[in-house]
Specification:
56% helix; 304 residues; 14 helices; mainly alpha; P1 Nuclease
Length: 304
């Protein structure tokens, strides 16, 4: 079986430990509110050296951040499931299911082959690191072509491409700041794994945290008060994406501890819960700002 066929076959096989369809629907990641306030803070943290057209597109970049969740369209899924629907593996990665050496795969197709070689067959632990790296590379390619464009008309076309790519990249980066998107415990503790601390297995946890609680309790001003630090260039995109996601994954247990103390929901008033959500959203905003900045700065380097 060739690589492309293997990928298709894996996506069509029901799999365990890798975001299968839960007993209850999961709403869009972070809700539109969380995605958009993270994107807003990312745009506000951009250095003045970014091209004017990019900074002037701030409102569009914010609007585009939830865009991949808008693609979860019931009519399209009924017409053909190819778009991926609610459980598209671009939106998550389950670190528990990926041996470290598999991350050396050159691209997502080799990643699938490496999973097979490691005995993980019919079990996709998610493509989120590749979604982030691929889209950052696409953005850098756009900036490089923009620098080289010979006519104002061509430059305008490239600008439209850049803004769209940057907005879509933002969705996957901010998805990755939510610990739920980095673990098999994505919507309640996985019922097929040990649970010695008695963490919730409730299938509404995901939406209660990232949509209901964040939508009701976390504001744009809350996020603006978070410290993003100075913009920095990420030297290695692959390692940068994995570091971002692994950092989120390191917060999985804390997320479940907070839920155990007081369930997340629109009425939750705990300062600890609030600080946790703000920190996670700020991390998404910080990483997104840094990836945009990295794509621009390194687009001037022919070796990038």
């Amino acid at each position: 079986m060739n690589i492309a066929a293997a990928l298709v076959a894996l996506l069509l096989v029901p799999f365990s430990g890798s975001h299968p369809e839960p007993e209850h629907p999961v709403v869009a990641a972070w809700g539109f509110h969380g995605h958009q306030i993270a994107a807003r803070v990312a745009t506000e943290g951009l250095p003045g050296e970014m091209p004017d057209f990019f900074r002037e597109a701030a409102h569009q970049l914010v609007w585009l951040n939830p865009e991949p969740d808008r693609w979860r369209d019931r009519a399209e899924q009924e017409a053909d499931p190819a778009l991926g629907g609610h459980y598209n593996p671009n939106h998550y990665v389950n670190f528990e299911g990926v041996p470290d050496e598999v991350w050396e795969a050159r691209d997502r197709y080799a990643y699938v082959d490496s999973l097979r070689a490691a005995g993980i067959d019919g079990n996709i632990p998610g493509f989120l690191p590749f979604a982030i790296v691929e889209k950052t590379q696409r953005l850098r390619n756009g900036f490089r072509r923009w620098r080289e464009a010979e006519s104002p008309e061509e430059r305008r076309w490239i600008e439209a491409r850049i803004v769209n790519d940057a907005g879509i990249l933002g969705h996957y980066v901010t998805d990755g700041s939510n610990p739920h998107h980095t673990t098999i415990h994505f919507n309640g503790w996985d019922r097929n794994t040990p649970n010695p601390r008695g963490f919730t297995t409730d299938r509404t946890f995901h939406s209660r945290f990232e949509s209901q609680f964040v939508g009701a309790r976390v504001s744009l001003d809350d996020l603006r008060r978070a410290e993003l630090g100075a913009p920095r260039v990420i030297a290695d995109l692959r390692e940068g994406a994995l570091d971002h996601l692994r950092h989120a994954n390191s917060h999985v247990v804390r997320l479940y501890e907070l839920e155990q103390q007081e369930p997340f929901g629109p009425g939750t008033e705990s300062a600890e819960h609030h600080a946790f959500a703000v920190d996670r959203l700020a991390d998404g905003a910080r990483t997104l700002r840094n990836l945009w900045w990295t794509a621009w700065i390194t687009s001037a380097d022919e070796d990038a």
